[in-house]
Amino acid sequence: MNLISEIEQKVLHGSTVSYEEGLRLAQVSNKEELYAAADRVRIHFHKNRMDLCTIVNARSGKCSEDCKWCSQSAHHSTDIEIYDLIERKNALDQAQINRDAGVKKFSLVTSGRTITDKNLDSLCEIYAVLNKKGRHELCASMGLLTKEQLQKLYDNGVINYHCNIETAPSYFSKVCTTHTIEEKVRTIEWAREIGMKICSGGIIGMGETMEQRIEMAIALRELRVDSIPINILNPIQGTKLENAEPLSDEEILTTIALFRLINPRALIRFAGGADENTSYSG
Fold first, then answer.
1. d(CA 100, CA 245)
2. What pLDDT sits at residue 279?
3. 269 contacts: CB under 8 Å, gap ≥ 6
């Protein structure tokens, strides 16, 4: 039995892939065999189910954080729309449009390190209306909230909280210096303690190595993340990563295959990034 088959059987029988095994898989020459094994693992745990999620930008721009990839950072000069908080009717209309199109999961996403209690109360009013209708599975992505703020979201029907760790713990300080990955982990742990499911992933193509992507995949497994968004960097003019070299197709596919084998039970969600509204997973 070769390495790929051996690890595939190991995963199917409930064992985990180690960091060293991940490194060996990344270096195999037969990439098509690796991709096929990852797909069989996907089918075993998730069949051919697609899970759609729609996000709506509820607060845009003027973010205090210096994340190198982000068009909404106040440290960058980009051509984005800036507004403090989405109007309630607009948010409810967007939720209805997407639910009518068959997308049940709905999330409000805000720029910034966190949000004020006043803004949180306004957004919770929107969630309360949607929760009462019972047509949506509600999600939120609002930065580094306190446990009390997360509880307020949960009390108004939000059952999924999104907080990307963005990259490997060893690389995080290279792409953001205004907050730490430890702060993100603390937010994730608080959300889980409250009873929320966790959505957390990141971006590939920011200068990290394949070894660091494997490190990130294992970190997410250790956090018991339910859903993992994998974004491929779309360099935006005006950000510090505007001249980043694009990844090859092989590098992208290999990364996704490794994430699937390392996190077989998690939904792996392919997301379009901050300027897109829908992601899907399987």
1. 39
2. 42
3. 51, 53, 199, 201, 227, 228, 229, 230, 279, 280, 281
